[in-house]
Write a sequence for this structure.
């Protein structure tokens, strides 16, 4: 058959009957291999006194060699390669989730002891070592983030409306889309420098003002809001718009009464995620808002404490050796509070998203 | 948005003067366009202020330039550190992110895949300062014995020359940055992998390909530019990250590729964060000039990433 | 050698949704069997169970028996990869791998098994398969060009060449002409006639004339009722099916009274 010049289609050899069954490892083979590999590693490791890291590493290597080798022997080399890649790929997942678990565990176990009533109601005013709370920083974070939201959300939504509803593919909207992409990548510290430079120009050097932090956060937040709103508006079917136009409804009312309500869930989700994203930003606040040990409710006057900056400054403050444990406990406590706030916002966004999401029946 | 309410046209009056609705349209369109223009203005403002405030730094030297002879000599080691830390981060994060993205988009059953997607998104939700705190307080003590082992056994490789006296090295900073870049790269890779046309995946499977062979034949060739752009956007994130590095790194501003010694290069962002408080006069301008350089570098990287992504989409 | 396929009591599910119920038929070797019926009645679903492509869709599963040459496809010891290797498939839309050349597309399946193939051996497989797919004369001068550069009909014949390059026993075709113009369609139909002498062919089509032209036997699928699962209404020789079907429903469909 091989060296023919025949033009007939190639036909399989008539006598051959190729078996479809191939020896296969049972479904529980990977689990067994994992148990054996890690068990063997643990046994040897305990005898030789390796640490947990050593046992896990050796067990993993055993699994990585053992399962593909077993599979190659039974199922052939192609399946063996497939098993090898599968093991590697699932391992990357485990490795990627490790820091998440480690960070959350560390923050909860070291932050929880710090939480008590005083922690939430007192400031650091007059506190040197133990005691005091982070009330001032919680308030500061709320104020700074709230102002940033008030600036960013309307501008972001209106810009997205322009991009989707008005500026369809014209020059301005193309440039704008590009610039918003650029803005998404601005490092947060550069946004802080911008606010610092702007306020230095207006108020002179050494200025500290919470509203400056809000402006810096807005620079980071606006592109996120525009992006997510744009995506949501694009999902609104054109039939809805045309239906409204056909009734003689002016364009702006169509947008306000038909398009925006349809996309509302997605827009709120996007905005909430944007808030969650900037609530934990530190660098810009460090530059322009600064730190303050007492409570300050006026965003236009002087420095204000915020949670992220408090975490940073308590962790790096140094000072008297006997104070350091208290500073660290405060930093971890504040980290726990900050994570709870950010996670709550994320959760809220998901709930809002699934609550409002159009029911497509799937 | 409040203006939309003040310009209300009564819905049940067809003969309402045309001009009202037209005025409403004009105002609303104007507001929308104005917001767009405002954003452009803001971005121009960022660039303009950075440039203006950087100009005085050009002549800075000696004490004003943090001991460097001129602004270039001040920024260069920082830029080196910035890029080094980001590259370490990507070397660690990229394979992990591609693996995780494959698990979510190909390997895991759909329900588990959704859950895993949420978990990876949570990784992105943790504020950078918390990662910094974790790196400074926890991770550094975990990696310290590993660094000692590396220095003892692989010390002949310049990267691991040591001596190891602290866990707070540029490698640790790179690991923390990798954790932070991972969710971005994963999310983008996931999207690209998921967009591989089913018909190409089925073509491979119908030829009798195993899962991995299907990935090699159908998924990877299709997503090459998308994955590259994901890596670049992750790089953009790692370059600009401030707090994690500022908290983790014990920096001394040297240029070295020794990843585990106590003599570590600093990064632009971290040095701004750590020095701004004591800066005044020309020193402030020097820091802002550093910020400008960072801005330009991240801009270039992000631009390249977006361009590749757009090109990939146009092609696919 | 081409193989026959015995299908008995097959139920096909998507998750909890029963898509096709109680299919029994025997697909004869070296014949063309056509599946016809209105959209959404499960013709393609049944086709995809014949080489275990159905289970690629998350949540999909199959009950019952599909036996090829005495081997049950859904036996736990059967390797789906080996099944797909023996039972080739051509899809509704031509799907050559976009990053591969024509040459590499043809060899895509062969390369999976033989890591190192001699150049002349590979060349002869490519030539044989492309000749088998009636495409050789059109592409022999541009084998290194990407497969996506061909016309739709050529791409589909390239996919057929790719499927027969691994010398399968059965060739499944899922509406292979629905995305093609009439001239390309007729080229493919001629090809099906030629391939019949070597392969068992199952073709899904919603074009009754096509079924009448190319097939020896025909299965008519329909929904029991709206919202009910699909079922095999009648399975008969094509001549009988189109002249004097047993079931009134088949008659109604073929004479164009519905669907």
């Amino acid at each position: 058959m091989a060296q023919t010049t025949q033009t007939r289609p190639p036909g399989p050899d008539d006598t051959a009957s190729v078996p479809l069954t191939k020896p296969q490892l049972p479904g529980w083979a990977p689990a067994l291999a994992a148990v054996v590999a890690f068990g063997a590693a643990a046994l040897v490791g305990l005898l030789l006194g390796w640490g947990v890291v050593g046992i896990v590493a050796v067990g993993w290597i055993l699994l990585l060699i053992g399962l593909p080798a077993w599979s190659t022997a039974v199922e052939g080399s192609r399946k063996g390669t497939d098993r090898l890649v599968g093991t590697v790929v699932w391992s990357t997942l485990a490795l990627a989730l490790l820091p998440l678990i480690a960070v959350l565990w560390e923050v909860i176990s070291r932050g929880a002891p710090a939480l008590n009533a005083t922690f939430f109601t007192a400031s650091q005013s007059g506190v040197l070592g133990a005691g005091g709370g982070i009330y001032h920083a919680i308030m500061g974070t709320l104020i700074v983030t709230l102002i940033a939201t008030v600036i960013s959300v309307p501008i972001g939504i209106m810009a997205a409306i322009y991009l989707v509803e008005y500026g369809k593919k014209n020059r301005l909207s193309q440039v704008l889309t590009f610039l918003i992409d650029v803005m998404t990548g601005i490092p947060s510290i550069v946004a802080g420098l911008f606010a610092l430079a702007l306020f230095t120009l207006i108020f002179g050097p050494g200025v500290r003002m919470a509203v400056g932090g809000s402006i810096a956060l807005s620079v980071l937040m606006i592109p996120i809001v525009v992006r997510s709103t744009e995506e949501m508006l694009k999902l609104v079917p054109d039939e809805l718009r045309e239906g409204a136009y056909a009734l003689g409804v002016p364009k702006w009312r169509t947008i306000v009464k038909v398009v925006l309500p349809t996309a509302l869930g997605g827009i709120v989700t996007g905005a909430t995620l944007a808030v969650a994203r900037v609530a934990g930003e530190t660098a810009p606040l460090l530059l322009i808002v600064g730190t303050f040990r007492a409570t300050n409710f006026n965003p236009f006057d002087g420095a204000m404490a915020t949670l992220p900056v408090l975490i940073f400054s308590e962790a790096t403050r140094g000072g008297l050796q006997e104070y350091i444990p208290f500073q660290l406990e405060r930093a971890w406590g504040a980290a726990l509070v900050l994570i709870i706030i950010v996670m709550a916002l994320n959760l809220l966004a998901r709930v809002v998203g699934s609550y409002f999401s159009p029911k497509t029946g799937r | 948005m409040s203006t939309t309410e003040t310009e209300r046209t009564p819905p049940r009056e067809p003969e309402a003067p045309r001009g009202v609705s037209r005025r409403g349209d004009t105002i609303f369109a104007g507001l929308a366009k104005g917001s767009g223009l405002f954003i452009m203005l803001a971005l121009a403002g960022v660039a303009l202020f950075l440039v203006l405030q950087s100009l005085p730094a050009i002549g800075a030297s000696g004490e004003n330039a943090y001991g460097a002879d001129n602004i270039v000599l001040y920024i260069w080691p920082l830029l080196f550190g910035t890029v080094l830390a980001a590259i370490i981060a990507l070397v660690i994060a990229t394979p992990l992110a591609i693996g995780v993205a494959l698990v979510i988009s190909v390997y895991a059953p759909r329900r588990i895949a959704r859950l895993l997607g949420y978990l990876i998104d949570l990784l992105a939700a943790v504020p950078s300062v918390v990662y910094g705190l974790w790196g400074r307080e926890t991770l550094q003590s975990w990696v310290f014995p590993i660094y000692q082992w590396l220095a003892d056994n692989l010390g002949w490789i310049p990267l691991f020359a040591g001596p190891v006296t602290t866990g707070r090295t540029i490698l640790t900073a790179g690991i923390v940055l990798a954790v932070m870049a991972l969710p971005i790269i994963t999310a983008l890779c996931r999207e690209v992998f998921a967009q591989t046309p089913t018909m190409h995946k089925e073509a491979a499977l119908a030829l009798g390909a195993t899962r991995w062979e299907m990935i090699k034949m159908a998924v990877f060739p299709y997503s090459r530019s998308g994955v590259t752009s994901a890596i670049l956007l992750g790089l953009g994130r790692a370059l600009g990250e401030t707090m994690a590095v500022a908290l983790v790194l014990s920096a001394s501003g040297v240029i070295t590729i020794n990843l585990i010694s106590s003599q570590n290069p600093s990064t632009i962002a971290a040095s701004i964060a750590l020095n701004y408080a004591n800066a005044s006069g020309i020193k402030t301008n020097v820091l802002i000039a550093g910020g400008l350089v960072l801005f330009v570098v991240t801009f270039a990287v992000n631009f390249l990433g977006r361009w590749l992504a757009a090109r990939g989409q146009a092609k696919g | 050698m081409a193989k026959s396929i015995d299908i008995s009591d097959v139920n096909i599910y998507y998750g909890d949704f029963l898509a096709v119920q109680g299919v029994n038929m025997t697909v004869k070797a070296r014949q063309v069997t056509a599946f016809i019926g209105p959209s959404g009645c499960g013709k393609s679903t049944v086709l995809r169970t014949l080489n275990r492509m159905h289970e690629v869709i998350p949540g999909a599963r199959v009950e019952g028996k599909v036996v090829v040459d005495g081997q049950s496809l859904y036996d736990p010891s059967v390797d789906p990869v080996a099944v797909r290797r023996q039972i080739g498939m051509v899809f509704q839309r031509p799907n050559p791998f976009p990053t591969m050349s024509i040459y590499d597309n043809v060899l895509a399946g062969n390369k999976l098994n033989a890591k190192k193939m001699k150049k002349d051996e590979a060349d002869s497989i490519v030539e044989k398969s492309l000749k088998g797919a009636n495409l050789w004369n059109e592409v022999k001068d541009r084998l290194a060009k990407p497969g996506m550069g061909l016309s739709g009909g050529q791409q589909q014949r390239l996919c057929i060449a790719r499927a027969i390059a691994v010398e399968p026993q059965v060739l499944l075709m899922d509406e292979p002409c629905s995305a093609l113009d009439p001239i390309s369609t007729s080229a493919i139909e001629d090809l099906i006639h030629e391939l019949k002498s070597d392969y068992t062919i199952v073709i899904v089509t919603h074009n009754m004339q096509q079924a009448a032209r190319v097939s020896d036997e025909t299965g008519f699928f329909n929904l029991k009722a709206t919202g009910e699962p699909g079922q095999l209404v009648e399975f008969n020789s094509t001549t009988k099916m189109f002249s004097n079907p047993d079931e009134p429903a088949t008659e109604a469909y073929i004479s164009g009274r519905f669907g």
Summary: Residues 77-111 of chain A form the longest helix (35 residues). Chain A has two domains: 21-113, 120-356.
